[in-house]
Amino acid sequence: MAENEKKTGTDIDVKKDSVLDTQRGRTSIDDVVVAKIAGIAAREVSGVHDLGGGAARMVGALRDSFNAGTDVRQGVDVEVGETEAAADVAIIAEYGVAIHELAEAIRQNVIDAIESMTGLKVTEVNVVVHDVNLPKDENEDEEESAAPRVN
Fold first, then answer.
1. What domains sit in the chain, N to C, each tagged with a CATH number?
2. Strands 84-94 vs 121-133: parallel, antiparallel or unpaired
3. What angle do CA 113, 124, 133 make, to 5 degrees?
């Protein structure tokens, strides 16, 4: 018999209470909540420059230009069931970081955050690296500030 089941006197399998479904009531956690938690947790990892692919970042830039604030869900897609959750996180990595180690750190931080804050079991966190942020070249800065070559 499974760990979360118990036998009653009538031999009917009854599920024990879960963290989200108890004898005193039921807790539902919306996808938006889990996506925000995942987005914040991913951004906390050193080596993440930004979240999202090209289109998501463009929409984010437009939103920022209207002072609508940062959408912490940008670049995050989640599926939330009754007791489990899965997340896809799209990132822009900083140049020079070990991407495989960065992905594992993101995965672990997102799992820890979602599980500790919601009680949901995270089944998977997929990390997609869309780009690498290159450091600004010092010569580019000097050229931009120099006087124009022609009048």
1. 28-134 (3.30.70.1350)
2. parallel
3. 75
